[in-house]
Amino acid sequence: MSFSISSEQKQVLQIVSFTILNDSTIENRFSQEGRRWKKAMRTIRTQQGWLRTLWGRDMNTSHKIDIFITWTDIQAAESFETSPTFSALLSGINISPITAHCITAHAPLSPHGPIEQVTLFFPTALTPEQQQFFEQQLQHYTARTPHDEIQSTVHGWTVGPVGRGGESARGCMVFFEWGSLDRMFEVKRDVGSLFNNCFVPLRDEAERGARTALYTQLRDGGKERSLACVVM
C-alpha cells in the first residue's frame, strides 16, 4: 500500500538510536542477531498508530543504528516509547541505552538515495519568533536547491528538549537525500555550491553546534501502512 499522508499534513517521525557490536550481523536473517532484529521490526509494525519503519547504519560510526518510525500522531509515538515493549524491543541486540526523539515534519523521509541527517542545536530559550525566522531561512534555501545537488529535503523540530554536551537544547533535524555519495562529496568540495553558500551558514547559526549522520541508504523495516487503513 502507498504511504498516503499528503505533503501538507504534519506527521510524527520518531528517531530511535542505539549502538550494537561493530560486527553484529543483524542484516543476516539466519543469525541470532538477525532473528532478534526481524522480531523487533515485526513488533514495531504491530503497534497502534504505526505507519512506516526505515532504518540505517551511520557510515561515520558503523555500529550506531537509527530506526525512523512514522506514526499517525505524537500520542502513538509517546505511548510506544513509554511502554514495556519499547524497553524490551532490542534485548540481545543493543549494547547501549536506547534514546528516542520525535519531530514533526511535512513530508515523508525518503528510502532511496544516500541520506545525510544534520541535527542543529539551539538554546531551549529559543523564542517562537527566532524559530520562525530560522524556519523561513531554511525553507528559502530548500526551495532554491538544484535537484542535481539534493534530491529531496525533510526537516522538523524535536518535540521537547534534547541533550547536548550535558545541557538541554532545542533540536532541528534536517534530512538531505543526495543523488549519490560521489555527488555529495563533489557539491561539498565546490565552494560556489548553494549548499556551501546557503546551508552551511545556516548550520553555523546553531549556537550549540551541529551533529551529522550519514546513511548509504535507509532500509525498509517492513510493509508500510497507509493512513487510510489506520483511521478506518
UniProtKB/TrEMBL annotation:
Query: Which InterPro entries does the UniProt entry name for this protein?
Result: Dimeric_a/b-barrel, PH_domain
Q: Which PROSITE patterns match?
A: PH_DOMAIN
Domain of life of the organism encoding this protein: Eukaryota
Q: Which residue numbers delimit the PH domain?
A: 1-46
Q: Which SUPFAM superfamilies match?
A: Dimeric alpha+beta barrel
The name this protein carries in UniProt is PH domain-containing protein
Q: Species name for this entry?
A: Imshaugia aleurites
